[in-house]
Amino acid sequence: MKLTTSKTKAPFLSILAAGAAAVALTVAGFSYSTNASAQAPRLTAPTASAVGTISTADLVEQVSPSVVSVLVEREIQGPQIPSMFEDFFRFGPPRDNGDDFENRQRMQAEGSGFFIDGDGHIVTNNHVVQDADSVKIRLAGGEEFDAEIVGTDPLTDLAVLKVEPMSNQPYVEFADDVNLRVGDDVLAVGNPYGLGGTVTKGIVSAIGGQNRENQYLDFIQIDAPINRGNSGGPTFDFAGRVVGVNTAIYSPTGGSVGIGFAIPARVAKDTVEQLIANGSVTRGWLGIQLQEVTTEIAAALGLKHSGGVLVAEVLEDTPAAAAGVASGDVILGVDGDDVESPNELSRKVASYAPGAKVKLKVLRDEKERTLNVTLGQRDDQQSVDEAEPANDNDDAAADMGLRVTDLSDVLRQQFRVPEDVDGVLVTGVRPGSPAQEAGLRAGVVILQVDGEPVTSRRSLNDKIENAKKENKDAVLLRMQFGENRQFGALSLHAD
Hints:
Layout: E1 13-16, H1 57-63, E2 67-77, E3 104-115, E4 121-124, H2 126-129, E5 134-138, E6 144-146, E7 148-153, E8 158-162, E9 185-190, E10 198-207, E11 220-223, E12 234-236, E13 242-249, E14 259-264, H3 265-278, E15 284-285, E16 288-292, H4 295-301, E17 309-314, H5 319-323, E18 330-334, E19 337-338, H6 342-350, E20 357-364, E21 367-374, E22 376-377, H7 395-399, E23 402-406, H8 409-415, E24 424-429, H9 434-437, E25 445-449, E26 452-453, H10 457-469, E27 474-481, E28 484-491
Parallel strand pairs: 1-2
Antiparallel strand pairs: 1-3, 2-3, 2-5, 3-4, 4-8, 5-6, 7-8, 9-10, 9-12, 10-11, 11-14, 12-13, 13-14, 15-22, 16-17, 17-18, 18-19, 18-20, 20-21, 23-24, 24-25, 25-26, 25-27, 27-28
């Protein structure tokens, strides 16, 4: 396979600075451009050895020169690395900076990255370069260059660096319209520890962020041996395309268990383009709290199947409120595109610029209608998908396998809750959880906890949390479904 390089500009470097997420990435042959007008050649299929084994050697040989180490130095006061990421940062010895603060130290960290164009732009993770005092990149040959942080995006954990363009520096490009499937092989090429590069082969084991709530991304989950220091490096498929950016690992013990996560190329490409153009990313915003339409909720609402997104609450003075979106609406689509989950709706809305006008297809009172919304600007300090209100004890009920929301006039009508019934509405129950064992299901209204009235979701969470602090094993619930009232014991031992 022949590798072409830019003859006038240095390709973009993607650097994995503080390697928190070393996902197994398949390095599939990517394309290199020679100049702005030249078309990148297609890589041929991997070669087969004499014994019939498919080899990725040609692909690795081509892509490796685009991958770099990212060297970061920052000042810290005491340990500040999240436990999930501790084992995937490479630290040099602390250096005395000469000040009077006893716990203040200089920290060095190293990750990976990759060039994405001939102008010297490099993609890496935000967590790699966050709060950095200085950033350098190191090529496979050992040469080091000072790098400038062009922009960062904490929501997607992406960052763009820039170095002075270098002659003949290879670079890779993000793939368009990637259709990865569970079972696809991928390669991760990194440049940690100054070793001159590492290659890890893995398999896509999941797509879509299963069992990881309140996240903006549907990560690519990859099963493979993970090398520390690979955060920010590229994931390739066997067609030679960059299909993801390594960002995190699953590490319940602090060490690698061989499961990693990558940011999908479609998200990375859009984010990187905005960072290069503007130095930051702006996203559209509705101002609603969202819930999944489970099978139970669909049945309670009279829907033929699950899908769409239930509006749990509309925040005051927001674009959604101005457009007439109401609590209890089911959002079915945006600008003609169907939405099936809160994450999908959140990403769809965020793909528009603030001020954009979009059409929401909603289901209300068993009738479809269209609402015109002018989007506001998202505050990324909010919860990633805005699916749940930010209560102090918001996880208390969730730990028991219970999802609830405050009653509204629309929800009363749709779930047939009488006007004289006060409490919180159950919208979902996790199978096998204490909530299910207590007899709870979607459509049930929780009236009391240990004889005290429940007036809101916060009220329920507070009562459960207080019972835990009193070392109770269970609380007594009074609940209503339809016209029937009954009691149930909710165990406080999380499943």
